[in-house]
Amino acid sequence: MLSKDQIQYFMENGVLILRNFFSDDEVSTWRNQALNHHKNPKTSEEWKYAIMNCPSSEFHLKNDAHPAIHKKMNALYQCFNDQIEWTGENELVARRPEIDAEWLGARTPHLDFPVYDKIRTLANSVFYLNDVTPKGGPLMYWEKSHKVAWDYFKENPSHYMAQGDLSQGQIFEILTESMDSDPIPFYGKAGDLLIWHSLTLHSPSVNLSHDARLAIIGRWGATIKDEELRFDFSKNIWDKWHLKTF
What is the pTM of this model? Predict the structure, then answer.
């Protein structure tokens, strides 16, 4: 599924883009399902109302793109670790069209801390149900930020999951200020897949296109016990992985 070069790229940059990963038929089915969930809004105001009143927590993909059950996702995630039972969930995230809004770029850089789940997230994912072009609400990410975050938490382990004296917002601000490169927007066609290391700094953005942007964001890893640490930051960043090619 993954070549040695792809594994090396992921380890170095913390992200990996796989174009045309999902079939047109799959994406079309999921897009229609997402539109039906929102009751097929047409205008920006209708989308605003739909997003507020049709919670994503009540949406679940049919034939879910889950690493444990989707054949292609399973083969992919076996390359990251074939010694765990991959768990987690997908979330539908819609961005309404706001063609007159100000472009703010990466407006809220953050990490996805699994605060409410007994899970050690490792490899997260995002794919779009419609094509996303410049300023059309792309997810934005910082390459190599997983290494910066790991080194920061190695020095400040209580700051992971914001268990120390700083808030999540303060921690994310420190990490953002530590970046020496600009964020990269993930543009792509419906069905393109982005995998990112769970410690990769990323951000949403405003959608200035004429159509709603529909994304499926997955957070994947392994279940942990009640008192089990998610990570031992004194060890190597890849300690909980089993990276390999097939």
Answer: 0.96
